[in-house]
Every structure is written in C-alpha cells, then in structure tokens.
Design brief:
It contains 14 helices and 15 strands. By secondary structure, the chain is an alpha/beta fold. Bound molecules: pyridoxal-5'-phosphate.
Amino acid sequence: MNGTIYVDNNATTRVAPEVLEAMLPYFSDFYGNPSSMHTFGGSVGSKVREARAQVARLLGALPEEILFTSCGTESDSTAIYAAVRANPEKKHIITTRVEHPAVKNLVEHLGKNGYRVTFVPVDRNGRLDLETLYRSLSDETAIVSVMWANNETGTVFPVEEIARKVNARGIVFHTDAVQAVGKIPINLADSAINMLSLSGHKLHAPKGIGVLYLRKGTKYAPFLMGGHQEGGRRAGTENTASIIGMGRAAQLAIDSMQDENTRVKALRDKLESELLKRVPASMVNGDPENRLPNTTSIAFEYVEGEAILLLMDQHGICASSGSACTSGSLEPSHVLRAMGVPFTAAHGSIRYSLSIYNTEEEIDFIIEKMPPIIERLRQMSPFWQQAQRA
Ligand code: PLP
C-alpha cells in the first residue's frame, strides 16, 4: 500500500474538499469586512450568518448562542474565565483528572491564584466518579467543567445528566466537546449545558477556527475585549473564510453522522478486535461501552509507544502514543495515569482515531503490519523477556 494511512484524526483532520471549495472565494473575491456598511462587506456578513445557523443546527442551538473563536483552547479559556469573572465571589472550580491541557492547565493556574479546584477522579475504565463530583458542589462553586469525550481513550461522559444536577444548584456547567462534536449526536435544545467548546480542525474544517456555544441567559464576561464583533462577546475581525468553512463542515457532519456511527465504528471495532486477537498481552484503555465510534486506545505491554510509532511511520501509518514528552523523559499521559493503567501498559499505548475517509483496505493493512512490529520490539525488550520468564 502506498502513501499515508492516517488514523490520527483526534489530533487533527483533513479539510474536507467541500469545505475548502466553500472557503476559497472568501480569500480572493469576497474579502470584505463583514462589519462594513457597503454591500461588498455585507455579502460576506450574510455568509457568516449562514455559517452561524449551520453550526447552530449541528448543536440544536440558536444562532445567537454561537460565538466564533480561534480554536478549542480559546473557547475553553473563554468559558472558564467567563464563569469565574461573572461570579467573582465564588472561588471553587470542579473539573476532572482527565481533561485536555486546554482546561487542565488553566484550572491548575487558577488553583495557584486563589481558587480551590476539585479534580474528580476516574476509575480503571476511565469512568467518572460522579458521587465525588456531586458531593463537591457547593455555594462557592463558580463552574463545573467536564469534557464530553476524552481525546485519548474516546470515553464519553454523561455530561447532560451532570449538567442537569449542576444547574439545579444554580451553578454554571461547561463542557469541552472538541472530540464529541461531529462524532456523536448532540442536541442542546433541551439540555442544561451552559457553555460548550468545539474546534473546527477536529471535524474537517481548517485549523484556527473554534466555536463557543453560550446558552442564552448565562452570565458572561468577554475574554477578548475590543470591537463589537460577535455581539460584543468576542472582539476581533472575523476569520471569515474559516467561519464559512466551519459552517460547511457542520453541515457535512450532520450528513455523515450515520456513516461515522456505523461504517467507521465497524472499522474501529474490526481493528480493535483483530489486534487484541493477534497480539498477546494487549488490551483496550477506556470504557468499552460509552466510547466515541472512531477511537481505540490499545496498550501493547512491555514496549515503548514512541518506538511503535516510529516503526508504524515506516509503513506510512500515522497514529499517536499515550506518552507525553515532559522534561526530556517519556511519561505516560496524565489520562492513563489517572485511570491507573500500569506503567508497562501505559508506556506502550497507541491511539488509533479514524475518520469517514478511512477505508477497510487501510484497516486491513494496519492489522497486518502491527503484530510483527510489536513482536520485533518485544524481542528487544528486557521487560518482555523478564515477564516471559516470570
Ligand atoms: N480539547 C480537547 C478534548 C482536544 O482534544 C483538543 C485538541 O486536541 C483541544 C481541546 C484543543 O483544541 P485546539 O487545538 O483547537 O485548540
């Protein structure tokens, strides 16, 4: 098989050809400022309104509840800062131990600057300890932020149920839905979620465009201050081409949801079950039931994830490992550590994340190439030899 086999779609996705086509005229022909008074700018403004409505439709939201941002990280920061600044007397934040750094690093920073932070733990399957979460709610709590789906394991959290309980206490609920949107159906029309973050580049729109859903009536303070764009809620001249691409991608996500949850899921299941069958001492990280349809994180015990990735790369296969390079040493990710995945397994964890563009032929190719890669590395692994002797 020639070329690249891309199963790293939780890292980023290919821009859909339909999205690129929709965007191109807005770089060259229709470059007006959507806030301008003239017809030339105004025509871009109406395309931005159309994109807002398309994103709203994907989420079951109202167009005026959609704010365009620059990325998922900006949406997360805006949401959390909005809640803490709109409720200055409240000095407690609740989140989970497995959030993306976009939330984790911000709340850790707030934790060092006058806030008390509760990090809700997860169990061995990555499921949230809901009892601890509910017990931690107090009149001091400014915001609860729980991701909809985990980027490493694909585990899906019951955010709608959590939001209802949190809202009933009059507390703001935010969800980082960067990995969930476009992969599983989301309908905010009758949910209690106050704020939701998403990122264009995870659903076949370009990098550099994000969305913050802000439920009508939620107390809010803008993060970026300046011009009156986005109804005064997010200043800065609109990234018009990318906004229009985001709208088209939202429309495509509605159309491909069925494919994602049937064909893509079947490919993921095939990849997972065949690898577990063919590679001894391998196991899945994450909740086997509540999981994104496109993601599997598989631990190949006693080998190093980075070494696996290098050998996969020689076959053109792109995936991610469950390690993060911290101060020059490879540490298992905070997510796998929070789940209590043993070191020998966490180190050899590989995340495969599929998209609608993957084919069965590609999955068969990966299934064929992985067992000899793991076998070869285990021959060189003193830990594997030791485990075999034990
Ligand atoms: N949240 C989650 C769960 C993610 O997976 C990511 C990106 O990987 C982000 C937030 C950050 O999104 P962005 O890269 O658009 O800033």
